[in-house]
Amino acid sequence: MYQQGVDTSQTFSDKLHSFNPSNYVSDESVAGTSFSPLARDLFIKLCNPMPFERYTAEQALRHPWITRDRDSPIPLTQSQKMKAAEAHSLMKTIVTAAYFLSLTRNPAFGGLQEYKHLC
Question: What pTM did the predictor assign?
Fold first, then answer.
């Protein structure tokens, strides 16, 4: 990736930030042998230059390809954990809004008239 005499610190930094490990691992790579999907997943998560997208040593050691336990879950990166938390928060907001709307339309709770003073 680094080309001595050609790359400056800025061009090399740009290469690192645009690096995508999945471009370097195909289904038929490494002298004709193929990577299993678990091996490919581990390789990509270990080689990512972005810290939130890269595995820690602890996460790598819990990966099913290392433990040979194919039934264990694949550890999430920090980035994946953040996306899951955002999705959970959004779903919670939607469910809360739907519940509130169902209450405002229910005559047993006074209907919409009961909640107009909140607006």
Answer: 0.53
Is 60 exceeded by the pLDDT of residue 90? yes
What separation, in Å, do the N-terminal and C-terminal C-alpha atoms of the chain show?
59
Residue with tokens 């739907």: 98
Domain locations in the chain? Answer: 1-75, 78-119
The DSSP-derived string for the chain is: ---TTT--HHHHHHHHHH--GGGT--SS-STT----HHHHHHHHHHH-SSGGGSPPHHHHHHSHHHH--TTSPPPPPHHHHHHHHHHHHHHHHHHHHHHHHHHHT-GGGTTGGGGGGG-
For 21, the token pair is 């490990």
H or E stretch at 59: helix 57-62
Report which of 41, 111, 108 is spatially closest to residue 80, judged by C-alpha positions: 41
The SS3 of residue 88 is helix
Q: Report pLDDT digits (tens) over 103-115.
A: 777 666 555 555 5
What is the pLDDT confidence band of residue 9, given thresholds at 50, 70 and 90?
Answer: confident
